[in-house]
């Protein structure tokens, strides 16, 4: 990894992951593990959570993008992640629009500032 940047990982539906892969984010680490997971109807919550935790443990990943509707399935694991790197960002999917009220990272960030900080 010397001289190389860190990766973006994606956990999402087929359309989301395909879009990011076409954008060039797909990589395999030295153990031949990909930096993405396509979540389908038959993907278990355990598999999603294990993949999320494996991305958290990887030193080559700086950002984890996850569809918000999938993040809801493993909310407890996302809420337990308190480190700044890798950053976890919840993104919308084609069928599920973004809902800021469900985004635990955004709620945490809002708690750091008061309305007077922006005046």
UniProtKB/TrEMBL annotation:
Molecular function, one GO term: proton-transporting ATPase activity, rotational mechanism
Per the UniProt entry, the signal peptide is: none
Q: Name one GO biological process term.
A: regulation of cell population proliferation
Q: Which InterPro entries match?
A: ATPase_V1-cplx_f_g_su, ATPase_V1-cplx_fsu_euk, ATPase_V1_fsu_sf
Q: Coiled coil located at which positions? A: none
* Keywords from the UniProt entry: Hydrogen ion transport, Ion transport, Transport
* Family under the similarity heading: Belongs to the V-ATPase F subunit family.
**Subunit note:** V-ATPase is a heteromultimeric enzyme made up of two complexes: the ATP-hydrolytic V1 complex and the proton translocation V0 complex.
What is the protein's name according to its record?
A: V-type proton ATPase subunit F
- Organism annotation: Poecilia reticulata
